[in-house]
Amino acid sequence: MAEDHMRYDILAQEALRGVVRKVLSEVAKTGLPGEHHFFISFATRAPGVRLSEKLLGQYDKEMTIVIQNQYWDLKVNETGFEVGLSFDGIPETLVIPFSAVKGFFDPSVQFGLQFDPATAPGASAAEAEADDAVNAAAATPATEGEKPGEKVVSLDAFRKKP
After folding, report:
1. What is the dihedral of CA 152, 128, 101, 110, to 10 degrees?
2. pTM
3. Residue 119 carries which DSSP code?
């Protein structure tokens, strides 16, 4: 097989991160339309992530936030986003680079994306190994209690392995 000098795996991940950027940018301007809401998972120790020491202590490696009813000051730029959320009644501002995002899911339309941190700028081999385990778990068949179709899109089958 020929070597992929184009790095389609990285290009695809960047394009999909662009989907998240575009969606959040629209929501920042106009609010959430209809029943749309988002679950966004991210690596809490990724470069550029900013959150309180309290949250970092509770979520050492990964955290999932919900953008639905109670969020404020959503700001989006080319490299990431900032959002205000309340945790146990305490307001917090989170700064999350798109490179730290591991998953994006809109349950209102059963749309989800899963990202490989190995294709993000600054990703380490340890983060990539941890995500391989997450990807394997996400690829398992639906278990009791899950609805068919509630799956995250994974590009692993199309990624060239080193």
Report:
1. 0
2. 0.72
3. G
